[in-house]
Write a structure and sequence with these properties.
Blueprint (H helix, E strand, L loop, with lengths): L1 E9 L2 E9 L6 E7 L7 H11 L4 E5 L8 H4 L10 H7 L2 H6 L2 H16 L4 E11 L1 H12 L4 E7 L12 H4 L6 E9 L5 H14 L3 E10 L12 H18 L1
Parallel strand pairs: 3-4, 3-5, 5-6, 6-7, 7-8
Antiparallel strand pairs: 1-2, 2-4
Helix pairs in contact: 5-6
C-alpha cells in the first residue's frame, strides 16, 4: 500500500485524513471510510489498507476534528482489557454529543469533494463504509448524496432509526445506490425492532439493500483493538463489503 496523511478543508476548520492506495499504477474507484466512535487510529488504518488492497483509493477523515487531533483523542490504554473499552466510551459522552447530524452532514460534502479530487481516483461514483456512529453516517450519506454514492456499507451501526424527521432510515429512502447493513446480534444501540423498521422502510421505497444480523456478534465486532472483536463477524464483513464494491463500483 501507498499511504499518506493529508488535510481537508471542512466547514469548521481543517480535518486530517488518512489515505491508502493500492500498489501499482493506474486509477481506481474511491471509497470514503467513516470511523467508529473511538476514532482514527492504527486499527482503522489497517482496515483501510485492506480495502485499498482490493483496488480502491480509500480516504478516512478524522471525523472528530472539532474536538482535537486524532492522536489527542486516541485511547491511551489497552481496550482489549476487561472493562477498558466501557471506561473509554464513558469518557466520550461529550465528543459524541457534539457529533450531531447538522455537523456531520455538513462535513460530508467536503469529504466527498476531497476524495474525488485525490490523484488516482477514477469515476464519478464512490463507495462508503462506516462503523458504529460511522455506520449511521453511511446510511445517512446514501440518502444525502445519491448522486455519487453507489454503495454504502454500515456495520454494527448505532441509531439507524429515530423519531426525528431526518432519521437515517428515512433519509436512506432517497438512496439510488446499494446499501449493505451488517447488524450486531447483541447491540442495544440497534435493537431488533429498529432493524425491522429499517427493512420495512427500505422495502417500501424500493431501495436495493441487504440487511443481516451477524450471529453472536457484539457492537464493535470489527475492531480488533477492543474487547468487542469477533473474528468471524469481522471477516464476514470484509467479504460482504468486498463483494458489494465489486458489483457496484
Amino acid at each position: 500500500m501507498t499511504t499518506e496523511t493529508i488535510e481537508i478543508t471542512v466547514p469548521d476548520g481543517t480535518a486530517e485524513a488518512y489515505v491508502s492506495r493500492p500498489d501499482g499504477e493506474g486509477d481506481h474507484p474511491g471509497v470514503l471510510f467513516h470511523v467508529d466512535a473511538i476514532g482514527l487510529r492504527p486499527r482503522i488504518k489497517e482496515m483501510a489498507d485492506r480495502i485499498a488492497s482490493w483496488g480502491y483509493v480509500v480516504l478516512v477523515p478524522h471525523a472528530f476534528y472539532r474536538v482535537g487531533t486524532a492522536d489527542e483523542l486516541a485511547p491511551k490504554g489497552d481496550l482489549t482489557e476487561p472493562g477498558a473499552r466501557e471506561e473509554f466510551f464513558g469518557s466520550l459522552r461529550g465528543l459524541l454529543s457534539g457529533h450531531t447530524p447538522d455537523r456531520s452532514d455538513a462535513d460530508l460534502d467536503a469529504y466527498v469533494e476531497a476524495l474525488q479530487g485525490l490523484p488516482g481516483v477514477s469515476g464519478s461514483s464512490i463507495g462508503y463504509t462506516g462503523y458504529c456512529i460511522g455506520g449511521r453516517m453511511a446510511v445517512r450519506a446514501a440518502g444525502l448524496r445519491p448522486d455519487v454514492i453507489a454503495a454504502a456499507g454500515a456495520f454494527h451501526a448505532a441509531g439507524l432509526v429515530t423519531d426525528d424527521d431526518d432519521s437515517p432510515h428515512l433519509l436512506a429512502t432517497r438512496a439510488t445506490g446499494e446499501i449493505l447493513a451488517g447488524h450486531a446480534d447483541h447491540d442495544g444501540s440497534n435493537p431488533a425492532e429498529a432493524i425491522a423498521e429499517l427493512e420495512r422502510t427500505l422495502d417500501g421505497a424500493g431501495v436495493t439493500y441487504t440487511s443481516a444480523i451477524y450471529p453472536d456478534a457484539p457492537h464493535g465486532y470489527t475492531m480488533s483493538d477492543t474487547s468487542s472483536y469477533d473474528e468471524a463477524a469481522a471477516e464476514r464483513h470484509f467479504a460482504e463489503l468486498e463483494d458489494l464494491f465489486a458489483r457496484t463500483l
